[in-house]
Design brief:
The structure is a homodimer.
Chain A: H1 3-21, H2 26-42, H3 44-61, H4 65-71, H5 75-90, E1 98-103, E2 109-116, E3 119-124, H6 129-140, E4 144-148, H7 154-170, E5 178-180, H8 187-193, E6 201-205, H9 208-217, E7 230-234, H10 240-252, E8 261-267, H11 268-284, E9 288-291, H12 293-298, E10 303-304, H13 307-310, E11 318-324, H14 327-337, E12 342-346, H15 350-359, E13 364-369, E14 387-388, E15 396-397, E16 404-415
Parallel strand pairs in A: 3-4, 3-6, 4-5, 7-8, 7-12, 8-11, 9-10, 9-11, 12-13
Antiparallel strand pairs in A: 1-2, 2-16, 14-15
Helix pairs in contact in A: 1-8, 2-5, 2-7, 3-7, 5-6, 6-7, 10-11
């Protein structure tokens, strides 16, 4: 197989499908999404057979237990792919929404209308459920999708995408609305990243290495999610009980996710009061505390934090804690060390809260709430493709609306420019 | 001078300024914009002295008359830079607009709010007025700007940016809100395009070569405007008088701009009726007609159009004309050959119009109006930075709103995730 020609064909088919998809009624897309869910359940034994091929190969290759766990498609996980597709079917269709309408003195009427982006390329790693989740969101938002999964999940991804295509065929939508790159050759990724004529946006999902590679090499616009180095700042004006609850929740409730807190800042005026009960509670939950020098003076059992610690997304029960002199120092620190994902202040002081919300340059900024709320579901957007740490096009949770563009429809009556 | 360090310093200063700028009140930004206008008028003799240096160097270098004309800053042009800045001051400030607000069952209140993008890099060619125009739009939208102008306009750009900085200083805003790259060394551009840590978006303004280079090499998201290969399709259901008026206006009213028509499609059913009066009128205005073979059968004096013609933005009194069999053929042709800028249909048939608006994948699609209306001013957006042919973030005219991003401000009361 000539990889370049193969990828180019896939791209052309995707563009063609995208033009048909852009004009589908919500009901027709939803019918397909439900047919996809039905077929996934009906074929769950076939999916498991293919999944076992990947698991066996993974074991032979010596993949870690965590990797193998991510790879495995249990009955529950297959069920939840189907449920996910049905939930996407129930969401409001963003396409066709009128964003603005005006009549101009020249005589033209301008309607700004939401349209699909076109063709979305998704490059992802191990979890095979992404195949169904991402395809569902793309279909609902009227976009054709090209899926490039990790080689370790090749058989699982392939069978899932074939099932999705069968559902498209059955319900009369273009099969090429969902295409999976049927080769593990790495050159395929390079060709995708240079297919700017056909692919409108690339969304990488996976580890930082993958995202960095895609962001560096892509000629196509990328919507990406780097780390979640999230901060909580317990300010001078904080209510201590709320501060402890929020900091504890942000670190401990689910430490392995991007909106969990990694760095905690505490105002020097309240440090001595809040540290003992807070650290006690955190340590009881198994949190290792790394602190700045000021922290170590108050709590000598903390480990000294290095410059590296402030810049690390541990995704684990490790917390770096720093004492800061005032609000401005906290803001400067967060704007420097945050990955611009989610950062919070705890304070009862209205000015402190408002100034923090204004000054922190992150996708989501909080007053008196846990950073754990940054999530499409919690934000009422339904399913999401991830959390964007970019500032252009999509910032924060990427749901259906963020997978759309717009166009201007202009109506005249023989109207010409003077 | 070490170019890399120099560019890196400029970038750091810009990011610092952008954080201060993001929190300025509309009145303070407007006061600065008006001070910029005043100072440009007060210093107009100094501007002309510096401009003459560029003109003299340009003449020695053998620049074309058209290039030298674009370079020249006459009294009228200096006046219009000042007027432009005052007009931007009068526009509505987009920053701080509440885009969405909701209370969630969890107890959090989410406000989606419009914020500046941050740091904008503008890479542009000859016209020195871009320095003031672009800086004005960036300042109003709360963004710091790094300007990199063409070497032939170096002295003109430098004096204008120094005047703008003097106005910033005078009114108490950070001078580094506007920075001009004070070297003509081409390596500076490469460093800018890789400064993804500091610059949030790059906007190239100039010829296709420049834009291609920037789009290919930039690691930073780019908002760009490729060609304007705009189409008009005179459909079966067209009113002939309207069709002639619209096609004539789209081609002749100002042929050198991006929203002028380059390709005209005519439905075969009405071709014999409309061609003679239309071609007569176009030729009287000096338009050279290049046609497909079907056209040549009706009008043997037309020149045969090549594949190249359909893909060329002439920006001149040259028009490529093709007969198509039906609406679908027209749509397919336009989606293939259009630069996705502006395309129009002329028809009285409601279905034809609606289907065309739906199916054409361009930033602006027209029914019964001239493509010449694609323009920030005509769209009621005030001044514009250009017309985006991208689909992500900004599509069509790029005005103040398109120079912004958003963030989510979330308020709780000790709220944690369950």
């Amino acid at each position: 197989m000539n990889i370049e020609n193969y990828v180019s064909d896939v791209c052309k088919h995707a563009q063609k499908a995208s033009r048909i998809l852009a004009n589908q009624r919500p009901d027709d897309k939803n019918k397909t999404l439900r047919a996809m869910a039905d077929l996934i359940l009906a074929e769950h034994e076939t999916i498991k057979v293919e999944n076992i091929k990947d698991l066996d190969a993974g074991k032979k290759k010596g993949l870690s237990k965590a990797m193998l766990d991510r790879l495995e498609l249990t009955d529950t996980r297959i069920q939840s792919m189907a449920t996910g597709l049905r939930e996407v079917a129930d969401l409001i269709d963003p396409v066709g929404e009128i964003l603005d309408k005006k009549n101009r003195p020249s005589g033209i009427e301008i309607t700004k209308i939401r349209v699909p982006i076109g063709v979305i390329g998704i490059i992802y790693e191990s979890r095979p459920n992404v195949t169904a989740d991402a395809a569902g969101l793309c279909l609902k938002s009227g976009n054709a999708v090209i899926l490039r999964g990790g080689s370790e999940a090749f058989h699982s991804n392939l069978i899932i995408s074939n099932i999705l295509r069968a559902a498209l065929k059955k319900t009369g939508l273009p099969e090429d609305s969902v295409q999976f790159i049927e080769t593990t050759n790495r050159k395929a990724v390079d060709h995708l990243l240079h297919a700017e004529e056909y692919i409108d946006v690339i969304i990488p999902r996976g580890g930082k290495g993958l995202i960095k590679k895609v962001a560096t090499e892509s000629r196509i616009p990328v919507i990406k999610h780097y780390d979640g180095i999230c901060h909580t700042y317990i300010a001078k004006g904080a209510d201590l009980d709320k501060a402890i609850a929020i900091a504890f929740n942000a670190k401990v409730q689910r430490p392995g996710v991007c909106n969990a807190m990694e760095n905690l800042l505490i105002d020097k005026e309240i440090a001595e009061k809040i540290l003992p009960p807070l650290f006690l509670k955190l340590r009881k939950a198994g949190v290792e505390i790394r602190g700045c020098e000021e922290i170590l003076k108050i709590d000598p059992s903390a480990i000294q934090a290095t410059e590296e610690d402030w810049r690390t997304e541990y995704l684990d029960l490790i917390l770096s804690v720093k004492i800061v002199g005032n609000l401005e120092e906290a803001i400067d620190f967060i704007n420097e060390y945050s990955s611009h994902h989610s950062d919070a202040i705890v304070t009862e002081d209205h000015y402190e809260g408002a100034h923090f919300l204004q000054s922190i340059d992150s996708a989501t900024v909080y007053v008196n709430a846990s950073t754990r709320f940054t999530d499409g579901g919690e934000f009422g957007m339904g399913a999401e493709m991830g959390i964007s740490t970019d500032k252009l096009h999509a910032r924060g949770p990427v749901g259906l609306v963020e997978l759309t563009s717009y166009k201007y429809m202009v109506r005249g009556n023989g109207t010409v420019r003077k």
